[in-house]
Amino acid sequence: MKDATVQESEAPTSIANGIHHLDRSEDVDAIIVGRGGGSDSNLQAFNTERVAEAIFTANTPVVPAIGHTDDRLIADQLADVATITPTTAGEYIVNSRQEFLASAIEPLEQQLNAAYETFQQEHEHEQELVEAVMKRLYPRASH
Question: Which residues form the Exonuclease VII large subunit C-terminal domain (predicted)?
Fold first, then answer.
């Protein structure tokens, strides 16, 4: 979490700095840029070049949660997905993560398990061959 000023003249710099700060953190999976609605003038920080650049260049997915459905903000247009409220943004991120795990990680887990089983079977076959050779070469030896 990173606090930022979201209105007045210092807001664009504060918001952009917050996005850049969170984007550099390895512990951050997604960035929600949020504020409650407001008048058009109160939301203008999200229509600035500085905030647009921060969202556009972020490597971490950015989800704005700014204002109301009537608001049309540059931040919403540049983001990975735009939502109306922080709650909606959180729900989107959690659902996206669960969908990702189901669609990407679970099949990889299945492939890894199948590869391990194949490896294990091949290893057992090699061990049986070694034992057979040992019996022929050293019939009196126990194994």
Answer: 3-136
- Assigned domain for 1 exists: no
| 35 strand-pairing partners | 66
- Alpha helix ranges (H) inside 6-139: 11-24, 40-43, 49-57, 74-78, 86-100, 106-137
Does the residue 42 lie in any domain? yes
Nearest to 27 by CA among 1, 65, 9, 3: 1
Looking at the domain assignment, is residue 73 inside a domain? Answer: yes
Confidence of residue 69 (pLDDT cuts 50, 70, 90): low
Domain assignment of residue 117, yes or no: no
Alpha carbon of residue 67 to chain centroid = 24
How many domains is the chain built from? 1
Q: What is residue 85's predicted lDDT score, i.e. its pLDDT? A: 72
